[in-house]
């Protein structure tokens, strides 16, 4: 049985294999395939005028697959159509069968169909209809249902009828031709259709689609739309529900990523859907090009889309939009983001945040309507939006004025497509805005222009492609100094966008309270003032220049450096220049009652060539005019003044080129105060044409210096008169005469006192190039400060054929020179200089020269030849053509008692580029100074020289009295190289002194050795050591001079350390004169700039002040010092200090007044600066005695504590005792020194007569050295005779210094003051009186008395009728101790008889 089944199975397999083999060979037989194709064509396709061709056919029973390869269906060729273009081409058609089901059902059951490489090409005819094969064209139009397609029903039918899966690979359907306007191409890379059940278990179709390289063009849209990529997953069930999952689309219009859910209604138009747009990126250029609108940039959308009630209604969108560099038609929408809602063809947006390329920002909300002229409306907050950006967004490429615009709640609306085609678009803006950082971009030099203040604008703007207009737009500008609010109104303003180049501007405006400093931006000059104006701003289309013209009133103004109180006239400006017409200008200081008026009929000034045209008149005081133009004048003449009797000027030409001027100037001034002189009268009458002046006169009459007027020396008559009858830059026709001109009038120019007189006679005619005439100038008895310069004489005469010779004799014939040049001021010249016993110290004042015995005698002769400095040569500088030589024959220099003589004559050679000097050797008893051969190159700007020093310190006392007997040598060798402006010095300076005696730093420096090295610009103290008394002193460090030679010179960098060990010093100080010191110290001076820092420690081993001087003398000298020394402070002190000073029982004072030893506890710190030093710490006594007046006090305790906040007013704690006969007197002083409490006591406390000792008694004991017999306030009167001289006043009641001081302080209100002690009934008090003598007959006075008795105040007045009778009145208020307060008024007559 088993064998039987095996045989059956083998039979079936063998039969199946045999059948497959048989079918394979049969179907792959060309004869069989041809027969099959022919059968199909004859029976089917030929009847439809089609032709079928087949590449191969195969059937596999193993896989149940039927494959047809290279299947092509073509239209048959006929007489009208010879082409056989493929209508349908298919690379492979594969049908997978279910063999079991097919056998059971006795028919083919298809499991899956695969289509690969399908190409379908269909063209359009001229009417836009598809050209289909005839078999697809019905012979008779079938009756179609009038109802719409019911897609859900269709899906249900297909569910039951379609039992197989379908897969499509690489199918291309092309309708039309690409070069035609009706063309569609769909490239289906892959598609797969399956029947499934969705998530709700409803039968559904599942489709996965991948499209690529597709394109679409339609007759109504003449633009090619490309689809490069589409991939999605679709599920559609039999109820019409669909889900499009992960739709990913990329095209030239947009990129889309979305998920869509919806339902297809029974009527397709009733389909509804919702889409979640994950990303929709729209290319503005391509998308809006479909609407025939220009655009650029990208738009990115994200949000939800929901269909309308049907497919005919617009869907709605709600989400977020972002865009970058977006433009639409003539509008620049910049970059930004916003919340967006699209509904009913309207975009409503909110929270828009827009950024411009130049940092502008717009926050807005509004709406945008599609199709209806694309109307938009929004409310915007604008920040820093450049006006040029706004215009550029409106397709205006150039604007002469730019600014940043800011606004809140600015309403902006308009039409992107205007109904008026010429306008292209329309824009409306209304609201408040602010214009900031306004500037004119045609100004290439923005640096240095003062910013224009912000302008607040009440904006009413309209704009289109034709232009921009403003109507009744108000603006406000706040003055940043006064905070005044200025207002202006643009009555009518228009910016025309239509010119080919740039824009046109025309504005008419009015202003009130305008700060014209805004014009400083345009003028680049100090500008100020408050103006009211009506003006016009317009653009000249010929020159493309903006011009502003205005009728203005300006108050307290300044324009072009001219200050004025009031301006009333018409003026204007542009980038080329400024002009003024018919203006009255009031000038002078505000507080000055008598102001001057400048009538400016015309003023034109061109910025490019500086051409000017001026017509003006002036009256009033000259100083008002000087004050007005002080910006242009030197400080030295700002106080110039005069009475202007007449001043008229008319000028035309290039302002800075006098040779081009036409000038008419008529002026008469009187009582002229000029520099340091007063001139009675000045007349100027200029008549010039093209720089040539004829019939012109300048005269100054009666010139005196202010010093001469003050001294009453007004006898001298002086004048200066010049006549110009043919004078220009070519002609030399002029005459002049100066007589006794006082040189003292020029003192402030030299900033030194100058004296002397000048006489001159000048007569020239002809051409400057062929000059005839002469000039003779003599100055007598010239002195500069305290330097006597002698007499000067200068003569100018024609010489040897078209030459001029200038002879100079100066310094009382010590200097003789002549200069010969061509009359044209160009060409060859000769300079000859002779020095005869020339004193090189002449500029030093006589007192200094005499004090230091400074004198010299130099004899030399030099001659140089070359071209004049005015000669034009582009190749060389004028001095490079000069050559010459000279010789210093002899030289003698005296400093103090030291005399230096020139060893041998000195040769000097100059060849144009450099000066060469021979060895220069000065020698004398003190030593030798030698300069080696020197070369100064002016072309390379280099120097080469050397210096040798060799001095005998033993003769230093010949130089100055500051030195005493010394023994030793000072020598040095240096080389000087490098740049003239930045030389390098190298070498060494050696000091070897057995003794160097400096009188102010005794005792002498013994065995002093020092070496100082110069390296470039750095001085190094490599070795400095000296014995100083019983100790020594050493130093090291460096000074870097590089900062001095830098571009911005500064102080040198210093680092020096000074160490002393038990070094002795004897210093000169006030009062005591000599201070003996022995010091251990370590100090460091360092820093890169002042104040340099001085730090370290000082230990006073000994400080001894010794002088046989009493307390009265000390007090007097202290008082004198306090009144004579002025405390000065420097803004740049030389030192900043932080030095600790130690003194332990080492501070000793010995004098008739005080003897004792003092210490620091534990130290004193000296800080602050050299101009304001500060002391902190405590000084205390170890043992001391004080001889005060007639008493000797033993100081038991004395502490002076210095606190930084109190500076030189220490806290004191002093206790001392003295013996006067049998009495022990104790004095205690406590508290802040300036407000210390003084307590006096005596023991025993009673006098020998039993009277209790009072304070006046104690003062009497101290001042007299005796115990009074009885207690009495009169003792204080006795004490005062000693007390007042002790404190430096003498007698208060007779002190003229006190009177003078009080009179000065009170401005003369009080002219007499007395302070004196008084007694009444044994009680002491002090009385102060002050009086004022108003005339010889009237005297007023007040008195105040205070003391043990209480207080008393009084006032009186006395009027003297004659020598005998006077009227008096008085007021007296008494508040005496233990008495009632009384007030008395008295008046009456006072009679004087005899001496009473």
What would your notes on this structure say?
- With 1396 residues, the chain is mainly beta.
- Among the domains are: 1-112 and 127-136, no CATH class; 149-252, no CATH class; 913-1050; 1292-1391, no CATH class.
- Strand 5 (165-176) and strand 6 (183-197) form a beta hairpin.
- Helix 13 (1255-1264) packs across helix 14 (1274-1286).
- It starts with a helix and ends in a 5-residue tail after the last strand.
Write the layout of secondary structure elements.
Blueprint lengths: L1 H26 L2 H16 L4 E11 L4 E11 L10 E12 L1 H7 L4 E13 L28 H11 L3 E12 L6 E15 L5 E16 L2 E17 L3 E11 L2 E10 L8 E12 H6 L5 E12 L9 E13 L2 E13 L2 E10 L5 E9 L5 E12 H7 L7 E15 L10 E15 L14 E10 L2 E12 L6 E12 L7 E12 L4 H4 L4 E13 L4 E15 L2 E13 L2 E11 L8 E11 L4 E11 H7 L12 E14 L7 E13 L2 E13 L2 E2 L2 E10 H6 L7 E9 L4 E11 L4 H4 L3 E14 L2 E15 L2 E13 L3 E8 L4 E8 L5 E11 L7 H7 L2 E13 L15 E13 L2 E5 L3 E5 L3 E4 L2 E4 L3 E5 L2 E4 L4 E11 L14 E12 L4 E14 L8 E12 L1 E11 L2 E10 L12 E17 L3 E15 L4 E15 L4 H14 L10 E9 L3 E4 L3 E16 L3 E16 L2 E12 L8 E10 L2 E10 L4 E7 L11 H10 ...
Parallel strand pairs: 4-5, 59-60, 59-61
Antiparallel strand pairs: 1-2, 2-3, 3-4, 5-6, 6-7, 7-8, 8-9, 9-10, 10-11, 11-12, 12-13, 13-14, 14-15, 15-16, 16-17, 17-18, 18-19, 19-20, 20-21, 21-22, 22-23, 23-24, 24-25, 25-26, 26-27, 27-28, 28-29, 29-30, 30-31, 31-32, 32-33, 32-34, 34-35, 35-36, 36-37, 37-38, 38-39, 39-40, 40-41, 41-42, ...
């Amino acid at each position: 049985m088993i064998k039987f089944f095996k045989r059956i199975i083998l039979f079936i397999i063998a039969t199946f294999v045999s059948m497959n083999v048989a079918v394979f060979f049969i179907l792959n037989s060309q004869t069989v395939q041809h027969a099959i194709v022919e059968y199909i064509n004859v029976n089917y396709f030929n009847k439809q005028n089609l032709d079928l061709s087949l590449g191969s056919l195969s059937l596999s029973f193993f896989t149940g697959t039927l494959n047809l390869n290279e299947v092509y269906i073509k239209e048959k060729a006929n007489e009208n159509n010879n082409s056989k273009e493929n209508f349908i081409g298919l690379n492979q058609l594969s049908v997978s069968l279910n063999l079991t089901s097919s056998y059971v059902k006795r028919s083919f059951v298809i499991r899956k169909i695969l289509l690969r490489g399908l190409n379908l090409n269909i063209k359009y005819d001229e009417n836009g209809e598809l050209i289909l094969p005839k078999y697809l064209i019905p012979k008779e139009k079938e009756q179609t249902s009038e109802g719409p397609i019911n897609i859900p029903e269709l899906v249900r039918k297909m569910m039951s009828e379609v039992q197989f899966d379908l897969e499509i690979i690489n199918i291309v359907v092309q309708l039309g031709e690409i070069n035609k306007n009706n063309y569609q191409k769909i490239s289906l890379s892959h598609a797969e259709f399956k029947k499934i059940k969705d998530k709700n278990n409803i039968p559904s179709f599942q489709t996965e689609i991948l499209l690529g390289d597709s394109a679409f063009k339609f007759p109504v849209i003449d633009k090619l739309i490309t689809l490069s990529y589409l991939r999605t997953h679709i599920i559609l069930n039999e109820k019409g529900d669909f889900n499009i999952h992960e739709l990913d689309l990329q095209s030239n219009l947009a990129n889309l990523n979305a998920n869509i859910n919806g339902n297809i209604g029974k009527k397709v138009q009733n389909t509804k859907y919702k889409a979640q747009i994950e990303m929709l990126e729209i290319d503005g250029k391509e998308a809006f090009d479909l609407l025939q609108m220009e655009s650029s940039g990208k738009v990115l959308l994200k949000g939800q889309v929901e269909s309308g009630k049907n497919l005919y209604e617009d869907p709605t969108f709600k989400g977020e939009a972002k865009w970058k560099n977006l433009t639409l038609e003539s509008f620049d929408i910049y970059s930004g983001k916003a919340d967006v809602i699209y509904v009913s063809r309207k975009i409503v947006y909110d929270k828009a945040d827009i950024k411009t390329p130049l940092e502008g920002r717009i926050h807005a909300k509004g709406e945008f309507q599609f199709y209806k002229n694309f109307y938009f409306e929004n409310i915007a907050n604008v920040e820093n939006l450049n006006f040029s950006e706004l215009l550029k967004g409106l397709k205006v490429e150039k604007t002469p004025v730019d600014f940043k615009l800011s606004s809140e709640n600015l309403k902006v609306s308009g039409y992107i497509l205007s109904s008026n085609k010429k306008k292209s678009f329309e824009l409306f803006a209304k609201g408040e805005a602010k214009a900031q950082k306004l500037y004119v971009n045609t100004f290439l030099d923005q640096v240095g222009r003062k910013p224009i203040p912000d302008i607040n604008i009440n904006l009413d703007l309209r704009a289109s492609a034709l232009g921009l207009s403003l109507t009744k737009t108000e603006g406000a500008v706040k003055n940043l100094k006064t905070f005044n609010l200025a207002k202006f109104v643009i009555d009518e303003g228009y910016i025309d966008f239509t010119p080919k180049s740039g824009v046109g501007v025309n504005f008419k405006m009015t202003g009130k309270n305008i700060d014209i400093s805004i014009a400083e931006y345009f003028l680049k000059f100090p500008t100020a003032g408050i103006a009211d104006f009506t003006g016009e701003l317009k653009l000249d289309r010929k020159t493309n220049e903006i011009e502003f013209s205005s009728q203005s009133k300006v108050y307290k103004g300044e324009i072009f450096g001219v200050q004025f109180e009031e301006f009333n006239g018409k003026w204007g400006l542009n980038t080329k220049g400024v002009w003024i017409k018919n203006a009255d200008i009031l000038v002078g200081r505000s507080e000055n009652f008598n102001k001057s008026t400048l009538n400016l009929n015309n003023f034109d000034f061109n910025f490019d060539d500086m051409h000017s045209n001026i017509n003006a008149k002036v009256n009033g005081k000259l100083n008002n005019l000087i004050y007005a133009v002080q910006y242009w004048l030197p400080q030295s003449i700002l106080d110039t003044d005069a009475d202007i009797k007449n001043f008229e000027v008319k000028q035309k030409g290039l302002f800075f080129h006098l040779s081009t001027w036409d000038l008419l100037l008529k002026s008469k001034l009187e009582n002229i105060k000029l520099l340091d002189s007063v001139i009675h009268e000045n007349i100027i009458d200029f008549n010039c044409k093209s720089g040539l002046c004829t019939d012109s006169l300048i005269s100054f009459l009666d010139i005196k210096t202010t010093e001469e007027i003050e001294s009453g020396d007004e006898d001298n008559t002086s004048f200066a008169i010049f006549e110009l009858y043919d004078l220009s830059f070519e002609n030399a026709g002029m005459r002049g005469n100066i007589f006794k001109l006082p040189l003292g009038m020029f003192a402030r120019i030299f900033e030194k006192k100058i004296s002397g007189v000048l006489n001159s006679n000048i007569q020239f005619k002809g051409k400057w190039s062929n000059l005839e005439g002469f000039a003779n100038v003599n100055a007598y008895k010239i002195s500069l400060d305290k330097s006597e310069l002698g007499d000067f004489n200068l003569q100018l005469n024609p010489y040897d054929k078209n030459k001029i010779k200038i002879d100079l004799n100066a310094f009382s014939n010590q200097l003789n020179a002549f200069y010969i040049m061509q009359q044209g001021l160009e060409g060859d010249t000769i300079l000859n200089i002779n020095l005869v016993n020339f004193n090189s110290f002449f500029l030093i004042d006589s007192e200094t020269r005499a004090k230091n015995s400074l004198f010299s005698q130099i004899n030399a002769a030099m001659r140089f030849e070359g071209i004049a400095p005015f000669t034009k040569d582009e190749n060389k500088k004028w001095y490079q053509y000069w050559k010459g030589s000279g010789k210093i024959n002899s030289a003698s220099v005296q400093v103090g008692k030291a005399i230096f003589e020139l060893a041998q004559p000195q040769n000097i050679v100059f060849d144009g580029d450099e000066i060469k000097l021979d060895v220069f050797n000065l020698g004398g008893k003190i030593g030798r100074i030698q300069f080696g051969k020197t070369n100064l190159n002016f072309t390379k700007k280099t120097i080469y020289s050397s210096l040798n020093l060799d001095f005998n310190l033993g003769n230093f006392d010949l130089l100055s009295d500051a030195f005493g007997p010394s023994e030793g040598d000072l020598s040095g060798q240096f080389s000087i190289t490098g740049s003239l402006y930045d030389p390098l010095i190298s070498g060494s300076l050696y000091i070897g002194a057995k003794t160097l005696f400096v009188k102010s730093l005794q005792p002498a420096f013994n065995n002093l050795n020092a070496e100082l090295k110069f390296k470039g610009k750095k001085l190094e103290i490599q070795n400095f050591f000296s014995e100083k008394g019983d100790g020594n002193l050493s130093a090291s460090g460096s000074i870097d001079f590089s900062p001095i030679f830098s571009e911005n010179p500064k102080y040198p960098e210093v680092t020096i350390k000074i160490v002393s060990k038990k070094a002795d010093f004897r210093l000169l100080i006030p009062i005591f004169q000599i201070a003996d010191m022995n010091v251990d110290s370590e100090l460091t001076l360092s820093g890169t700039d002042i104040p340099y820092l001085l730090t370290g420690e000082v230990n006073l081993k000994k400080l001894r002040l010794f002088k046989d001087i009493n307390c009265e003398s000390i007090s007097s000298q202290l008082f004198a010092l306090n009144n004579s020394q002025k405390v000065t402070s420097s803004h740049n002190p030389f030192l900043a200090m932080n030095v600790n000073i130690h003194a332990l029982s080492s501070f000793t004072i010995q004098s008739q007044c005080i003897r004792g030893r003092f210490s620091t506890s534990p130290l004193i710190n000296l800080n602050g600066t050299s101009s304001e030093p500060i002391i902190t710490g405590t000084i205390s006594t170890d043992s001391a005695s004080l001889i005060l007046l007639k008493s000797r006090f033993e100081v038991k305790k004395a502490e002076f504590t210095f606190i930084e906040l109190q500076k030189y007013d220490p806290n004191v704690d002093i206790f001392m005792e003295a013996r006067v006969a049998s009495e022990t007197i104790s004095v205690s002083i406590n508290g802040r020194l300036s407000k210390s409490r003084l307590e006096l006591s005596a023991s025993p406390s009673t006098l020998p007569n039993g009277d209790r000792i009072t304070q006046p008694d104690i003062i009497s004991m101290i001042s007299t050295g005796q115990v009074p017999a009885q207690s009495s306030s009169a003792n204080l009167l006795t004490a005062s005779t000693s007390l007042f001289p002790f404190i430096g006043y003498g007698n208060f009641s007779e002190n003229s210094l006190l009177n003078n001081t009080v009179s000065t302080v009170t401005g003369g209100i009080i002219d007499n003051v007395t302070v004196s002690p008084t007694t009444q009934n044994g009680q002491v008090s002090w009385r102060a009186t002050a009086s004022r003598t108003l005339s010889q007959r009237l005297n007023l006075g007040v008195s105040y008395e205070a003391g043990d008795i209480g207080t008393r105040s009084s006032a009186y007045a006395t009027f003297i009728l004659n020598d005998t009778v006077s009227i008096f009145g008085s007021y007296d208020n008494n508040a005496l101790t233990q008495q009632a307060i009384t007030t008395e008024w008295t008046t009456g007559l006072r009679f004087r008889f005899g001496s009473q």
